[in-house]
Sequence to fold (952 residues):
Amino acid sequence: MAFPLPAHLPRKKDARDVSTQILTKISETSSKALRAEVASSWVAELDDTIQVTKARIHERIAADLPNFERQLATSISVQERMRSLSDNVDTLSESIFDPQSGLIPNLVTTLESHAALAQQNADARARHDALAHLLQCRNELRHLTRLVEEAELAEATRASSSLQKCIKQAPEPLSNSQVMADMQRKSTALRNRTEEQLLDAYSRSIVVSASEVTIRPYVQAVLPRRQMNGVWVRSTLPEDNIDTVIALPDLLASMSPSALSMHLSTLRRDIITHCVEYVLKQPIQIYQAAATRLTGTSEYKLSMQRAPPGTEDLSLRLENLTTVIAFLHSKLFPHLPPAERTSFPLSLCAPIRTAVLNQLLLPNVPSTLAQLPDFLRVAQQAATLEDEVVVKMLGDNGADARIKTWVDNVGLHYERKRRAEILDRARAIAVSPPDDSSTFHVDVPLVVENVPFPINVVDRPVANGKPAEPVAVEGNDDSWGFADESPSQGDDTPSQSDTSTDEWGFDDDIEQEPAPEPVPEPPKAPEPEPSGGTEDSTEDDPWGWNGDIEPTEVDDGSAWDDAWDEKPSAPEPVPPSPAPKPAKGLAKRLGAKSVPSSPAPPQSPTVPIHHPTPQPRSQPVVTKAKNPPPPPPPPPPPPAPVLIPATETYVVSGRTKELLRLVEDVLREGAELVSSGILGSTPGSVIMQAAPMALELFRALVPVANTAVLKQSVKEPMRFSNDCFYVSQELKRIVAGLSGPKAGARDKLEEGRERLRVLSDSWFEQTIVREEKLIDELLDNANGFIDTTHQERYDECETAVNEVLQRIRRVAPQWKAVLPKSRYYDALGSLVEAALSRILTDILALEDITEVESHRLSELCHILNALESLFVEDPEQPSFVVSHVPSWLKFSYLSELLEASIADISYLFEEGALVDFEIEELVKLLKALFADTPLRTNTINKLQHGHPVRGS
Fold:
């Protein structure tokens, strides 16, 4: 196929030769135009062209004749050489490939003859080698058979190994033959018979069990000569059996290496189990005996029997172990093969050390100090056993010496075991479930100094135009009935209460808040009764009851007028002071009732009263009277202080007593260990560490082990807080009494005491926070108290507030049952404060309150007024809710403000009754309650000037 020229190359002009041109002309001429003349012209043209071509060739040759002649001569020479080479090739091919005389046929014939001869030679050699090896195997088999029949077990074992080696080395053609298979079966049968007899003899020469150890240096073997169904069986006829005596060394040497290793491993296991661990676990009695059997063979027996009860002595176990190892060392080890005579005893060293530690020393570490001296003697005996038995008898190099190392630190091991036992006991205490039957009450001793003092109250009018009734906030509210009775207060009786130091851990001043309206009583003469007093600080003061206050003097006058009574009276006539005129709306709502002004209280020297909860604002407390009258004559001196014992009680779980008893026992045990001097220098430190560790276990495990109870119950978290606090206070007493060796645990116990105190406060606060969160979730259903004009929304809000009320009422008795009075009112006050603060925030956040909504919101606020009964201990005395709920007055005024007029709100603001509200809150409340009028604008401008500052 011609190579196609690329299209981009220049094309040469079509140079057709003459013949092509003539042929073209012939093909293009039609049959009608074809004539003789035309054909003659084509022939003539072709002849002319031939003549021209010849002429050109002759000219070309003539132009370069020498070169032409040279090339011609070369061509002739090449032709001759080619002819000669072809002749020689034909001759050579005939001499090589000729069937009769050719080289290749003769060579192939010779090679085929040589290969056949070599194969015959190889077959002969293979047959000869196979027959020679087979002859050797036959001779080995005959030799083995003879040895087995003659009961030469040792030689038979070696012959069996030689025969097996010979069979394995058989040539490949022979190894696959039937004769070798038969020989292999016979060899296996003879080997199994030999091993069976050796195993039987070995089982009777060395016997190790839990009751005895028997060593027979020579053992008699009875070998059968007859076979039955291919199995060698013993016969009752003596001539059918072979009796032979085999020495124990020969017996062991006769075994194959694999069988010997297996038997020695089993023997080592039996010795460790029956001769070492069995002897160390229990008391036994050992007897040695040597006897000669009727056959003339001797045997050595070591019998082991359980010792009778009451013979428990750990030192005897070590002596028994020494006896057993000495027996094996003298009666068994010398008969072992040379290769095992050293390695086998060494393999027993580590198990013996481990058994002495794990079976004797560690399980019998004493639990009491009285048992420790006897155990120390046993430990020293164990160290001696390691030196005499393990090192000297068994040949150990002593580099391990685990027993001696353990004995050198036996005191540390004793203390660690005791610590583990103590911590196990502490763990059992910590994980025990709560048990109400084991709880007990703890009385906190208090000493209150009875000093009379006046009650500081605030005169705050309410929205209906009547000033609030004086409310006395007692410093020591005795809800459990442990303190003296407080004097009842009549309408005209000067307010008196017990002066208290920071008895419940409160040390901030608060304002007195108005109580619910009491039933009006006729005026009575003032009869002040001194009560209350200060308390002395004690060492076990759990709540910081160690503050002292100065005694106060009796106030002759009432700090408040009875704003709820229509006929207020004063203890003595005082000049009336000008008072702002009540708003018309208030007077109209009161009807014919008059709104009296509040006379200023008589001035008398007083001291600040420390109340539980600080006020969240800094506005001064003002009274209604602007121009107080001159002070009355000074009152008579107070009576002499009288010390009144008082207590408060809280509930503690019974497991705390067990924990504290455990801590005291641990410290006492550590001190006894140090004073005994048994363990040398610096003992007792590890045991004493168990005391703070027990506290850590209690602190860590109780919340984990009682997670479900602590999450579901309201009372249990508070009781756990009491438990931590009680243990902390008792630890203070324990730490104070530490001396001598016990003083080393002082820092850790102090640290544990502080952590328990923090944990107590943490659980107390977390429980309150959890309940506050639940109350917040309940109030979420009120949806911000919006759209209460719709009955459905009002029902939802009412349901939410009632659920909050019921929740607090359910929680209160459970907390009161376990908490001390001070903490109970703190927790309950925080809970009520959370509810009131949330409702205050939601209502004050409303931007528009219609008249209907204001009435309904006021009704919703009045629902929680029932919580005030939780802060009343004596029905004849007013509640002290304002001392524990800072937002109580603010919340109470909110329900009044929701239904008050602008004039009422202005009047209350001028009287200083709304100091609990921020100015922004009052402004926002006015904008939400009332339409935009000039009166509202003027009132807002008045409010924005700030709360009025009243003179005292």
User: Anything to note?
Assistant: Residues 409-438+653-779 form one domain. The chain is about 55% helix and 10% strand. Residues 226-240, 447-644 have pLDDT under 50 and may be disordered. The two ends are 133 Å apart (CA to CA).
